[in-house]
Design brief:
4 strands, PTS-regulatory domain, PRD, Transcription Regulation, Sacy, Chain A, 3 domains, 7% strand, 4-stranded antiparallel sheet, RNA binding, 277 residues, single chain
Length: 277
Amino acid sequence: MRIIKIFNNNIVATRSENGEEMILTGAGIGFQKKLGDLVSKDRIEKVYEVREDGKDRLYRLFGDTPMELIDAAQKIRDRAKDELGIQMTMQALVGMIDHITYAVERKKSGLEIPNLMLHEIKSLYPEEFQVGLLGLQFIQDATGVLLSEHEAGYVTMHMVNASLGENKESISKIFLFTSGIVDIIEDVFDIDFDEDEISLARLNSHLKFLAKRILLKQPSTEDQVEDFYEMFMKKDKRYKSVEKKIKTFVYKNFHHEVTLQEMVYLMVHINKAISSR
């Protein structure tokens, strides 16, 4: 296998004998290498398949993300597989790496996004949440940064998104939910997400989690989120419009009354998506 791209000393891209593109990681695998050089097979530690439809995002992620964070996410992926039988796809892993990277950056800056679904996650997915907590230790070992259990909840969310079985009907409903709400956001805030935009991928992961929760009719608890709600209403009057349109859309298509907790959860991640563009 010959190198077709060098990200850094520890990450390169290559093609297999049958022409499939892959990203390889390993200590020193790219050190003093140039394009066209043969890969040192004894330095390969992990192999990641590259799908054409997610190639740009994957390349950006591996080019910008410290190797230790990729390793931490891979350890979580391996533990989810070994202990829970969860097969996280490359797409799911990329989403988790992206979330962990920004969570660490936010923590270093003294910021943290609350997980308003934390109680439900801990109650409905206790085994996955324990792996999420273990993931915090992997992240701390790699970076020296200790994240809160709110982030363990987000890690759990990525595992749940990867593990829940989906038939054609549920896939169709989840697509309707995510695409419909993204359309509302784009209309109300007068923005146009690019298909491969990282902020859209992040938003979609949260929309997908909420869609599955609604479709499975999982119980909800009402946390004290009124202060968050009032904050968004004062921050931008368009949140009132987006709230009305989302509630109408969800009730019409899914016969579900969006709770205050669910709406604030959406507002948190809508705000995150439009602020990071």
